[in-house]
Write a structure and sequence with these properties.
alpha/beta, five-stranded mixed sheet, 10 helices
Length: 321
């Protein structure tokens, strides 16, 4: 994959400059994630801002690792681990959609199909700290949160951005990885498609079903036909064969495809006000959430997470998807 932030004048200007560099239109005004409320009663003092009684959902941030006491953190992890209960005793089960290299993807290893990626490696690290076995369930991206709340998996690890809609449905961890979003086109269309403004009526764009990229497509190219597909490889294939004109893909994922395929390219960065990934936990499962946050803080602070990302990038060219 988040509460919409109030943009400062400088950030708004930078976004407009970014869009202009991509040949796009001026940035649209950001939509508010605050629910609409009824007009205040006559006795209420006038206000330029609508009131809302809805609870404020804290937006996940990156771990605070400045001055971190690693020994104290290890002790905290052990203390928190004792409180965690998993769906299956003695095992941590994660749900993912293994078509999103380098986050999660398939490779052949010694003739065996294996799911790898830095989300999977993070899940293994969490299981190791918990002292339990580890299982990966490969399911469709748009079903993971439903499986989570139905109690068939413990964690959702699939490059989830903590959007407001997701924060309403599940709890989400601290950010374990930050990255950007990109718009991809065929190299043969370079010059013909210069930005969002060229993707209007009569064109089509691709994005993964249920993803933040699909929301970005609706926001930045509202007149284009959105082709929502279950897997990223399907989107890339449609782009390469001309079934769609452009594709919204997470930058690190897009770069993985560029390393092995020379007929597609990143046209430009897609403005997005919260670029990061969180683990999803069933709503109200504070014990697991606190434990996961502590482990994420550890692997980010000691450099393990950066190494997991590097290793996954090296493996991504072996994807069989």
């Amino acid at each position: 994959m988040k509460q919409k932030k109030l943009f400062s004048g400088l950030l708004a200007l930078l976004m407009i400059v970014s869009l202009a560099a991509c040949g796009g239109k001026d940035a649209p005004a950001p939509s508010s994630s605050t629910p609409e409320t009824s007009a205040p009663a006559a006795s209420d003092p006038p206000s330029s801002q609508p009131e809302s009684n809805a609870p404020t959902v804290e937006v996940p941030t990156a771990p605070d690792i400045e001055g971190l006491d690693m020994a104290a953190l290890d002790a905290e992890i052990k203390e928190l681990a004792a409180k965690v209960k998993t769906v299956t005793d003695g095992k941590l089960t994660i749900g993912t959609s293994a078509d999103f290299a380098p986050y999660e993807f398939h490779i052949m290893e010694n003739g065996v199909d294996k799911i790898v990626g830095f989300d999977v490696a993070l899940g293994q690290a969490i299981a190791d700290e918990l002292g339990v076995a580890f299982e990966v369930k490969d399911i469709s991206f748009d079903s993971i949160l439903m499986e989570l709340n139905s109690g068939t998996i413990d964690l959702g690890l699939a490059g989830f951005s903590p959007t407001p809609e997701r924060l309403e449905a599940v709890d989400m961890s601290l950010l374990y990885y930050t990255g950007g979003q990109s718009l991809m086109i065929k190299k043969s269309d370079e010059g013909k498609i210069t930005g969002f403004a060229d993707l209007g009526a009569g064109t089509s764009v691709g994005a993964q079903t249920g993803s933040i990229q699909a929301d970005l497509a609706k926001e930045h190219t509202p007149e284009a036909n959105l082709v929502a597909l279950q897997t990223v490889p399907s989107i890339i294939m449609d782009l390469k064969t001309g079934k769609i004109d452009a594709a919204y893909i997470e930058t690190v994922v897009a770069e993985g495809y560029l390393a092995t395929q020379d007929d597609i390219m990143i046209l430009c960065e897609v403005p997005f006000d919260s670029e990061g990934s969180s683990a999803a936990v069933k709503k109200g499962n504070e014990d697991l959430l606190n434990f996961v946050n502590a482990v994420i803080t550890k692997v980010v602070a000691n450099g393990t997470m950066a190494q997991l990302v590097e290793d996954a990038n090296a493996l991504s060219s072996q994807s069989i998807s």
